[in-house]
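Appendix B, Record 12. Input sequence as logged:
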Amino acid sequence: MSSQIIIGLECHVQLNTDSKLFCSCTTKYGGEPNSACCPVCLGMPGSKPVLNKKALDYALKVALALNCRINEKFFFSRKTYFYPDMSKNFQITQYEIPVGEKGFVQLQSGKKIGIARIHLEEDPAALVHESGMHSSNYCLVDYNRSGIPLIEVVTEPDIASPQEAREFLDQLTTILCYLDVFDFEAGTLKADCNLSIKGNERVEIKNVTGKRNVEKALDFEAKRQAEAISTGKAIVRETRAFDEAKQITRSLRKKETEADYGYVFDADLTAFEISENELEKIREELPELHTDKAKRLVQEFGITEYDAKVISSDKFLSELFEEFAKNVSPKTATFAVSGISSIAHYENKEVEEIADKIKVPELTALSRLLESGKINEKIFKEAAIAHVTLGKNPVEFVKKNNLFKDLDESNLKASVEKVVAANKSAFDDYKSGNEKALNFIVGLVMRETKGKADARAVKKLLEEM
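Logged structural output:
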């Protein structure tokens, strides 16, 4: 059935600007509700929007990085709908002519996911359903978010599985991170997910937040539609929501068509034209992206193509690797950054979410200890975990817990002989060529020495014996 799945995504990315898209109100609000708004973002009669140049530059950067054709002439439209989160009853967006179109993102397999369009638009306000409030009666509206600049990245229906959707979002967020146009801590990335099974109606899952949730929502919806089709039920074109707690989708309403929004040219905003000189300047400002960085890391540091792709898939990790590589070998630097990545994975977070907890000089000092052989890989991981999760200085953590590899050769040999004597059958198995038995004995020696032994030294002693 997976070969019959057709998926398209509409990704809404909050741009990391200081002010809103059409007014000077701050995007860094943190105080009282409705304290960061003005007549423009409240939609008061007579107020006039003015386009944020930085937001436009950011949108152009993303469009160029996603291999899009840039429309040098474009304008804004009003998307009409009545809802409390948009007080003027329309959203300023782009419809007829977006900033960029006809681009692509390439997956690891080489498959290209087409980008239909990238356009700018303003975010609606936030609807707040407070605990204990009867949401069927009323809710609160906070217009601080109204007017926050967004870009919408719309894919072609080229995605064939929830896993491909997740990989596409991984690639997209990596590019956004390298471009430094998206604040991963304060910003939000939401996706409207469109899924159908070939020959049937498509269903939209609205406003799914986060890459993991997108994959889970699509996975559930694919199974739901497949089951319905197998029992002879028709798939209804509708908009659904993803219930994160229950890991299911539920129906919201009948799906609107483009005609329902009544797009019209926004006469308050003039048509815009971008010169070739302006475009060339933005092209020159584009940083080295992850695909190019991976190639450079292979050439410059001699690491494997696989390691280079993993490291460069995250801007922070790649910067951390190059910082470590100034002080230790590429092999040690690779192990160090993979350790940081695994800590984030264990914490069920993206690397960007733990970046602010990492003090690079302290981890660099820890890497030097690993490089010099004063600690082993296991101790490095323990100290790094204490650093990220508890805020400990990793070198001080090693000292305080007496974790240095201070076994001299005679003590190490005595420990190995003790373990071998107590596990003679396992040692005989090793002598007979059983490599698993060797790993078993090494593990016992590490336990006997409380992790202070060097596994390579232990193996060498066992081989000599």
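The chain has three domains: 2-280, 288-400, 409-464.
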